Amino acid sequence: MRTRQSKNQNKSCSTVDLRQLDENVNFTASDPGHSKDVSHRSPVQETTRSHRIRWTQEDLQELMWCYFYSQKFGSGSESDTFKIWRGRNPNSRKDMTSKKLAAQRRYIMKAQKIENNKLEEIKKNVDSSCSNVIRDNAQIITELNESNHKSKTDTDEQLLTDAEMKSIEERLIEEIKKVKMCPLINRKPLRKIYKNKKATEVLHLIDNTLINVLEKVVDINLTTINEIIYAAGVVATDIILGPRKEARHKGMETKKSTSPIWIQRIEGKIERIRLHISLVSEMKKNNNLKKRTIKKLDHLKRIYKLKTMEDIELTMETLKQKVLLYSQRIRRYKKREQFWRQNKLFESDPKKFYRTIREQNIQNGSSTLNVEKMADFWSNIWEKSHPLNKNSTWMNKEKEAHAWIASSTMSDVRMADLETCLKNTANWKSPGLDRVQNFWIKNFTSTHKYLLVSINKLIMGRQEMPEWITTGKTYLLPKKSGAMEPKDFRPITCLPTMYKIITAIIAEKIYGHLRKNNIFPPEQYGCRKGSYGCKEVLLINKLIMASAKQKRKNLSMAWIDYQKAFDSVPHEWIIEALKIYKVDPNITTFCEKSMKNWCTQLEVQKYSSRKIFIKRGIFQGDSLSPLLFCMSLIPLSRQLNIKDQGYELIPGGRKITHMLYMDDLKIYAKNEEELNKMLRTVQTFSSDINMKFGLENVPE
């Protein structure tokens, strides 16, 4: 009520100011040199015609004069132009709005309804006619803008009541206490919100309140920051969206019917017609009927005028056709709606569109899965570590080849690094067990300096790593339709957003070190910045095939796919690779400590498994894990490139030995003997780090 009253008051105030402005403008229109046909014209007379009024040349020039005037003394916006035009023409075109007027003005300029020299003349007339009242009119416009700004500010301030604003800090402190007492696994998901005036104001107020809350915290760490951000998110969603509605049954949310009213009406008609069909069929059978049924039949006889058996047959068929007609109408609507939604999704997010289609096809062929069976299968892979062959020849050569590299020294993470990392994260990516999305970390900027201090302490080893930050929630996505066996599923782990922020910053540092010292192999197209990935690999492969065909040269190729590559790479070898390539010791220590605490729970059809500790393999859900995997395959690329082997595109040019996209490897050789030699190199490397080939995925 307060907001509406404020708007009305400001609206009336604005009207008075504009009339004063227009009086001044019309008053000075008699000055020498002013155009007779534009600014000194009399207002258009009121008309009673209901049909469309034609725009005369004089009307068009009047509109452009108002537009140029608003540009010179106002903001040039649609609303300013309309206010000036309406003040000068109070009785003309009663149904005109600012949008319509702006559209007409754009049409004038696009269709060149007024000649350019005439437009220039109107502009000059605006300058000359208003020279005597610039100060007065500018003051009026300024007062108008200040009035509008004050109205907007008052409205924004009144989006929340005084009681709500005063209680925010109390609610926040109370919610923080609740979060501290609640186990992490029992947290409820934070609801998604969309930014508007109210949401922006609420987030700003809570962020300002957090400054006082954080200053009172004595020993602040990542856990404390996470609890405070989650509590602030709960308070924000309760204010913006209202209190959370509890589900009627556990695990089931209450949902309202989303069908349009006309569909519900048609469905009601179909139900009534089907009831009539069943009654008419009973009439046709002419069996012993109850009195209540007989009364209904008498009513139907009067409605459909049923006298003979032919009438009954005809009515029966008519009713069936009506059911088909109405059902077809609903199906047509739903098909059209689905088509519209899919088109819209494809335009905004093609990746999500294809994923939705694929998931629908897979879900149609899937059935109930055994959680324990899944947990046993993956625990046999993750929880069993295998020894690394540290005495291998290639490993010693790798150490000697990179002995000259200076160890990277990582300085403290700067605020610019944190802000860049947050900027590149998606707002509503699935969080981990902590339930905190990136949106809340981005918007509660008062926590950033404390978060930065905790990140630096954690990386430098001055703060203990909390257990929850390395605990994931793994979802098993089927690779194909009708997947039932555990091996036919791909594990994707949702990790806490704070862990992903830390690992993203570390990944940036490691990648910079590898590129600076030319360690990252050019044959690896996974995790490579500025690369098109698979597209580049396909184009190069196409070029090689075309060259061999055109020049009639021998070409031997082999495809290699590792079995559960991401889940099998040993932690011991990853740490050893970090040391060989002289990555900063603090980062190496951080990775080593975090790997010891890696664990996850499988989520299978809304059921959770026991906690599984990951002693080999990497997560598939953060920025660092893929880079660590690519690092573990660097020695393989170096071994394949050392000897004089591979396919030569240009005589005397560089030979192409292989291409890698993460774990997918393709080898090129000039003959079969050379190919077998390269395959033995791959086999030796793979056996030394205990990785196996997925022979069932290799094409024959």
UniProtKB/TrEMBL annotation:
Domain of life: Eukaryota
UniProt domain Reverse transcriptase: residue ranges: 458-700
Keywords, in A-Z order: Nucleotidyltransferase, RNA-directed DNA polymerase, Transferase
Region (Disordered): 26-50
A Gene Ontology molecular function term of the record: RNA-directed DNA polymerase activity
PANTHER family: REVERSE TRANSCRIPTASE DOMAIN-CONTAINING PROTEIN (PTHR35450:SF2)
Protein name in the entry: Reverse transcriptase, putative
Organism phylogeny: Eukaryota, Metazoa, Ecdysozoa, Arthropoda, Hexapoda
